[in-house]
């Protein structure tokens, strides 16, 4: 195995200029990440230097067998923490051979919204709090939980330390460092309220890059859990009963919100979000009704309310924002399995267009 490890860690730059590019895209379920690698003649610094590629869409639920070719366009580049050196991860989106975005390509519509002058002038910042659950591979039961049984009630696990309170920290730390290495703007990690559940935060990231960074961070986490023999779940309510669900709270601010008088701009934006509550809920993740019950730090799915420092609200405004009269707010409705391209662009569209 030591030879295998040596080969995996070979430094290619010692013998060749060639690099490996891992092309990543989103499959037909909207949550399944796919990837494949190709060799390039030398280092690359911009997506425009990369060739488009294709894949078999009939194998990902995105095209019929008789016309299965889907074309992927490179959109964002990150350093590859697995192969290292000059090797790269490439976030792509998917098109028909005629150049039309396929229905599951949510990035295309988001990029149009973010390139709108009224949106780009406001430099929208996002901070996304991605919660997830680590499951034991063969039984799909949370890491650290007794097989077929339950741990003690919630309370000691949130941001906890100790062998009886935190499970999977090696995976979480490996992911944190791998994301920093890749160039993802990951801003922190913490243990969550339900044991076996964790969170990482991406941001502040501007516009479309927030979606790119969250998707690549998810991909890196999938790869690390693969190595560790642990299953990664983005289910919004992995365990029924008196256990917290998993969300992807989305913090948001615009240039106007960050400047003097921004608190009034924030209140108007929240009002606009309230008027489109149903449309947002419909796009904020599958199975979210199991999570947004009005319990476990959520607002009921059918109710829109906001408040300062209120974790049981749909929208939470921080005490600092209220005090300083400017800042950001947090949309607490998105589920852990939301598409960050959809959620970020929808918030921008509702509040700015």
Automatic annotation (TrEMBL):
Domain GS beta-grasp per the UniProt entry, residue ranges = 19-99
Q: EC number(s) of the enzyme?
A: 6.3.1.2
Region described as Disordered: 37-64
The Swiss-Prot or TrEMBL record annotates one GO molecular function as: glutamine synthetase activity
Per the record, where are the segments of Polar residues compositional bias?
46-62
Listed under GO biological process in this entry are:
glutamine biosynthetic process
Q: Which reaction does it catalyse?
A: L-glutamate + NH4(+) + ATP = L-glutamine + ADP + phosphate + H(+)
UniProt keyword annotations, A-Z: ATP-binding, Ligase, Nucleotide-binding
Cellular component, GO annotation: cytoplasm
Identify the InterPro entries for this entry: Gln_synt_N, Gln_synt_N_sf, Gln_synth/guanido_kin_cat_dom, Gln_synth_cat_dom, Gln_synth_gly_rich_site, Gln_synth_N_conserv_site, Glutamine_Synthetase
Kind of enzyme, top EC level? ligase
Q: Which SUPFAM superfamilies match?
A: Glutamine synthetase, N-terminal domain, Glutamine synthetase/guanido kinase
Residues forming the GS catalytic domain are 106-353
Any Pfam family from its record, for instance, is Gln-synt_C
* Protein family (similarity comment): Belongs to the glutamine synthetase family.
Protein name (Swiss-Prot/TrEMBL): Glutamine synthetase
**Organism, per UniProt?**
Dipteronia sinensis
Organism lineage reads as:
Eukaryota, Viridiplantae, Streptophyta, Embryophyta, Tracheophyta
């Amino acid at each position: 195995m030591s030879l295998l490890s040596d080969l995996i860690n070979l430094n290619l730059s010692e013998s060749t200029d060639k690099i490996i590019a891992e092309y990543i895209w989103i499959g037909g379920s909207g949550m399944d990440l796919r990837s494949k690698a190709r060799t390039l003649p030398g280092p690359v610094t911009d997506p425009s230097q990369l060739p488009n590629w294709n894949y078999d869409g009939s194998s990902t639920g995105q095209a019929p067998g008789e016309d299965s070719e889907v074309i992927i366009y490179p959109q964002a580049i990150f350093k590859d923490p697995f192969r290292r050196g000059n090797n790269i991860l490439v976030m792509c989106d998917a098109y028909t051979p005629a150049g039309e975005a396929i229905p599951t390509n949510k990035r295309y519509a988001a990029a149009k919204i973010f390139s709108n002058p009224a949106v780009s002038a406001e430099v929208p910042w996002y901070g996304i709090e991605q919660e997830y659950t680590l499951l034991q591979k063969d039984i799909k039961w949370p890491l650290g939980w007794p097989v077929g049984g339950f741990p003690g009630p919630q309370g000691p696990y949130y941001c906890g330390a100790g062998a009886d309170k935190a499970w999977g920290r090696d995976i979480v730390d490996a992911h944190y460092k791998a994301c920093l290495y890749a160039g993802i703007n990951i801003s922190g990690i913490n243990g969550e309220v339900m044991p076996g559940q964790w969170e990482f935060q991406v941001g502040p990231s501007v516009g479309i890059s927030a979606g790119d960074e969250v998707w690549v961070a998810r991909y890196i986490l999938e790869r690390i859990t693969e190595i560790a023999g642990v299953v990664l779940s983005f289910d919004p309510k992995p365990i029924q009963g008196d256990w917290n669900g998993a969300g992807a709270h989305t913090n948001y601010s615009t240039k106007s919100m960050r400047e003097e008088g921004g608190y009034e701009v924030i209140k108007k934006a929240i009002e606009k979000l309230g008027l489109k509550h149903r449309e947002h809920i419909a796009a904020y993740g599958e199975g979210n009704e199991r999570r947004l019950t009005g319990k476990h730090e959520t607002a009921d799915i059918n109710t829109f309310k906001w408040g300062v420092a209120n974790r049981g609200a749909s929208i939470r405004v921080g005490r600092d924002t209220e005090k300083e009269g400017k800042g950001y707010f947090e949309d607490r409705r998105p589920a852990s399995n939301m598409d960050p391209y959809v959620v970020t662009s929808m918030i921008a569209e509702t509040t700015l267009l």
